[in-house]
Amino acid sequence: MEIEIKHGTETVICLSGQLDTLSSPDLEKEITNILEGNAQNVVLDGGKLTYISSAGLRLLLILQKKMGQKGGTFVLRNIQDSIMEIFKITGFSSFLTIE
């Protein structure tokens, strides 16, 4: 998996490839850095994300919760149909903000 972080009026996390048990520690490090910083608006761009495991879902849950505690926002954009299906099956689509 590749991770690209773009900073601006919002912090955008661009993911490509598979977010699974092997790659989730890399994303977790990036999320920790973002949460320790001043980011108020975080966007996960999943346009090139092809797979997400339970380890990846856990990271999204952590980011959603922590951003809410900071008074910030967390939004998912460009989510592919296969990933959206996982969000629906797991119930994540009911509490994540997906554009």
From TrEMBL:
MF terms (GO), sorted A to Z: anti-sigma factor antagonist activity
Source organism: Parabacteroides goldsteinii dnLKV18
STAS domain span: 12-99
A Pfam family assignment: STAS
PANTHER family: ANTI-SIGMA FACTOR ANTAGONIST, ANTI-SIGMA FACTOR ANTAGONIST TM_1081-RELATED-RELATED
Taxonomic path: Bacteria, Pseudomonadati, Bacteroidota, Bacteroidia, Bacteroidales
Protein name: Anti-sigma factor antagonist
Source domain of life: Bacteria
Family membership noted in the UniProt record: Belongs to the anti-sigma-factor antagonist family.
